[in-house]
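Moderator note: this is an archived Q&A kept for reference. The question asked for a predicted structure of one protein chain; the sequence and the answer are reproduced below.
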Amino acid sequence: MALSDFTGPDYIDAWAADLDRRWPERAAMVDCVVRTLVEWQDERRVRNLRQAGSREKKCHAVIRLLELGIGAGGLAEAVLDALVDASGEGSPDAVEYTGIDIEPALVSHGKERLMVAGHHDAHLIQADLKDGNWICGNGPFDAVYSLQTFHDLGGVEALETVYRQTHGLLAPGGVLVNADFVVPFEKDDPERPRRLPVETHQDLLSSLGYVDFKCKLRLGKIACMAARRP
């Protein structure tokens, strides 16, 4: 059901709960996205320490995050909580978060949710990912991630476009994590597929210069995939 199908003061929470009910594997995908980003953060820290020439030396850098399709904000909160905790700094200032969604109501809801959770500097933008202007003034980012968003962009050409755009926004060594449908629905138009197999994602990412593609988890009709900009 679409967000517009829900009413009442808590309609966004009801919409999110309905998604979780219809797709119970979402919880595992959230965990996978969070785990993948924390693993990447750990690898980044080790690499920075090596470049600094000493494991004893304190080495800290801000991590710049971009989420495409924030929804109700649950994934943003989970990611920020995990990365801030893993930073060892105890401060959300170690992580800079930008989130984008097409729905103004979700942007407002996300701002309030993250504020309540203690992430006061989160930057949320209302924009359409189908409109190339969303990339203007944004970036670079160290990590870009998304959950159940890209299949709504319109098909393989639109997916290739957003993968190309995120590649341009990622800093060298940055990671892209995408959890989305990889099995078509019966109602889908076979001439214009939107839910594309893992292999299609891998081929597109490789052709655009991403490396180290991994399918981190596949459960039901959804897979969590990651790749890196060299």
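Archived answer notes: Residues 26-228 form a domain with the Rossmann fold fold (CATH 3.40.50.150).
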